[in-house]
């Protein structure tokens, strides 16, 4: 059977297609529209649908809207409680109205679709399915934590043979995700967008406000928690966009980060006591906090922690489709990886380069050629295969660089036009990871945990070592990514370093590069030395030789 999932209600609109229980395609609308996060999470934007992403998913499978057996919309307006505390936006009812009418909006966006085919899947159930049904386990405890859904901000449950049992939820206004969003805004960043910047800033601070926060943010012992109103200005003054932060701001970020980790630890211990499961699966925006994930892995009671790579709201499109597939009796298959977006053939890529009239070459050994460029300290824009689903660059749309040059952190942040306090990440072959990185799960293919960099390696790969001595690694397995594995081998042969810098192929405020035109535009506008488009290599010097 064929099920399309749609996320549209808040932010990160996306679409995903599941056919006979297998994930066929998934993509975020931002990659098509080139608007970061697709839209802002305000009630007036609730009607905007991931039209281009949905059309592409169907095209990828050769389907028409009328061929679908169902469409999952990852929000159920019937669960919204009007006037609920904490939802004080005077236009909130407009969001719910739009959601009620989503079947008709979808039928307009996808001509041929019967509105009766659209099913409302509760937001946190869709999140849960994106973890519990997509993970490689028949049984798992599942923890969902984000800003908000219809009426709750958290779900704890248990998946057994594809069936979800909900064990606890947390009613709004109490929300760990909204707390972190509020702090993001107080620190001068964009809420529902820049929370990862707060996580990075926290590494520069001391948790000296932790005692006060423990009184304001605390678990309740029944699988839930309380978040009392917090006056952030008591701890550090509000910052405007671009205004310099101080030690007070870093200390506040560190305090909130640690309190978040402590509450999450209490939630997963409660969940383990109720389920006895070996595996924990996670989704929701809070699950993108890789520092917290690592603490749950080390100090929590579960043997394994698996996080959905598209843990934010975009992942609910996938979860909704998987939920419908399972409800209709399809045997759901774990997701094959995060490379679920658009891809192009070699001939198609060559045609793009010909249209752009740029000189290019096709090296006999691409991995060796690129490794030589990286060893010469050149920055490489790397475009290979199908695009990633979710916010992490995982070797499909990446910027690569030499990790042994300490100035490359600042250099890449300049290339991308972003804040200098933000770290860049390493990519490493899975079999080499344990000797270089400790205190984190291996393999770690989705860049969702942080690992300590072993002391003897910190001076050798300084560009990827954060101020606290950690790195958010991506492990590469030869059978899954043979070209990347060979690139890492060739780079090590030239430098003695089994690690390459990997950060997302984009500039600040722009979505990750998705199609060849995006890649050429980014290459033309940013000081990148080499563009690798499939098997083809473009040198900046040749393009701009005059």
UniProtKB/TrEMBL annotation:
Domain Carbamoyltransferase C-terminal: 371-540
Annotated SUPFAM superfamilies: Actin-like ATPase domain, YrdC/RibB
Domain Carbamoyltransferase residues, every copy: 3-71, 115-322
Membership in a protein family: Belongs to the NodU/CmcH family.
Name used for this protein in its record: Carbamoyltransferase
Organism: Microbispora corallina
Lineage: Bacteria, Bacillati, Actinomycetota, Actinomycetes, Streptosporangiales
């Amino acid at each position: 059977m064929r099920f399309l999932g749609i996320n549209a209600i808040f932010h990160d609109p996306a679409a995903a297609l599941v056919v006979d229980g297998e994930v066929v395609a998934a993509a975020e609308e931002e990659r098509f529209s080139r608007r970061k996060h697709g839209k802002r999470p305000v009630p007036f934007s609730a009607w905007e649908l991931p039209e281009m992403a949905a059309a592409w998913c169907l095209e990828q499978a050769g389907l028409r809207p009328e061929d679908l057996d169902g469409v999952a919309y990852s929000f159920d307006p019937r669960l919204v409680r009007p006037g609920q505390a904490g939802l004080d936006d005077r236009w909130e009812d407009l969001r719910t109205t739009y959601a009620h009418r989503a079947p008709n909006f979808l039928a307009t966006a996808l001509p041929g679709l019967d509105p009766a085919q659209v099913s409302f899947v509760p937001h946190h159930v869709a999140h849960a399915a994106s973890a519990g049904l997509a993970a490689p386990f028949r049984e798992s405890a599942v923890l969902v934590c984000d800003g908000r859904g219809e009426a709750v901000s958290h779900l704890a449950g248990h998946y057994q043979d594809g069936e979800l049992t909900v064990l606890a939820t947390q009613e709004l206004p109490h929300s760990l995700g909204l707390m972190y969003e509020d702090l993001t805004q107080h620190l001068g960043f964009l809420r529902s967008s820049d929370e990862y910047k707060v996580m990075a800033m926290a590494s520069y601070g001391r948790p000296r406000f932790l005692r006060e926060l423990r009184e304001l943010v605390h678990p309740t012992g029944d699988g839930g928690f309380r978040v009392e109103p917090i006056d952030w200005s008591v701890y550090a003054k509000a910052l405007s966009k671009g205004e310099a932060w101080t030690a007070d701001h870093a200390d506040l970020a560190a305090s909130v980060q640690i309190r978040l980790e402590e509450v999450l630890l209490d939630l997963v211990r409660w969940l383990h006591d109720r389920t006895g499961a070996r595996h924990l699966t996670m989704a929701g925006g809070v699950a993108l906090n890789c520092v917290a994930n690592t603490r749950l892995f080390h100090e929590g009671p579960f043997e394994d922690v698996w996080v959905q790579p598209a843990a934010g709201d975009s992942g609910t499109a996938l979860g909704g489709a998987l939920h419908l597939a399972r409800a209709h009796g399809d045997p759901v298959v774990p997701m094959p990886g995060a490379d679920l977006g658009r891809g192009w053939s070699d001939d198609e890529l060559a045609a793009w380069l010909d249209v752009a009239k740029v000189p290019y070459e096709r090296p006999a050994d691409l991995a060796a050629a690129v490794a030589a460029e990286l060893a010469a300290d050149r920055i490489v824009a790397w475009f290979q295969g199908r695009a990633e689903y979710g916010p992490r660059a995982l070797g499909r749309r990446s910027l690569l660089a030499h990790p042994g040059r300490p100035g490359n952190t600042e250099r890449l942040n300049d290339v991308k036009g972003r804040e200098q306090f933000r770290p860049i990440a390493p990519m490493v072959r899975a079999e080499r990871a344990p000797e270089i990185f400790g205190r984190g799960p291996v393999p770690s293919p989705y860049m969702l945990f942080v690992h300590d960099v072993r002391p003897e390696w910190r001076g050798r790969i300084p560009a990827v070592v954060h101020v606290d001595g950690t790195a958010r690694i991506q492990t590469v397995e030869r059978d899954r990514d043979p070209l990347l594995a060979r690139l890492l081998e060739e780079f090590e042969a030239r430098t003695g370093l089994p690690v390459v810098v990997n950060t997302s192929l984009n500039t600040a405020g722009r979505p990750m590069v998705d199609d060849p035109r995006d890649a050429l535009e980014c290459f033309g506008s940013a000081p990148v030395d080499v563009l690798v488009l499939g098997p083809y290599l473009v040198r900046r010097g040749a393009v701009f030789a005059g």
